[in-house]
Amino acid sequence: MPLVIFAVGDLMLSQQLITHGFGVLKTIEKKGADYLFQDVKHLLIGGDLVIGNLETTIAQNEEVGYGKQFFKAPPDVACSLKNANFNVLSVANNHIMEHGENGFLSSVSHL
């Protein structure tokens, strides 16, 4: 029986300075995080392992404590990642500590 593995690159599900007000986070706010995966979900569902690199912190503003708005995704993106069949996410990257230890622990908790 074959094992089907899909691996994607960076999943930036938050706002960045250069896209402030019109980027991925604004799309999530308008259409929901599931929208981001609607065109590829039918492919990802076929994978036994679906791996991605989560290039953001998952946290609410109060969880990170100092109000930075960049590289912070809302908690509902965790459900959208699961709905898209992601079952392995790397957080070993340069943005996971963007909001300190609280942001990191929040991300792990949501995942």
Spans of at least 5 consecutive residues with low confidence: none
Radius of gyration: 14 Å
Helical region count?
Answer: 5
End-to-end separation in angstroms reads 29 Å
SSE-based structural type: alpha/beta
Kindly state the number of beta strands. 5
**Mean pLDDT across all residues, rounded?**
88
The biggest beta sheet reads: 3 strands, parallel
Write down the secondary-structure element order: EHHEEHEHEH
Regarding quaternary structure, what we see is: single chain
Described by the principal axes of the CA atoms, the overall outline is globular
How are the SSEs placed, and which strands pair?
Elements: E1 5-11, H1 24-31, H2 41-44, E2 49-54, E3 57-58, H3 61-64, E4 72-73, H4 77-83, E5 88-90, H5 100-110
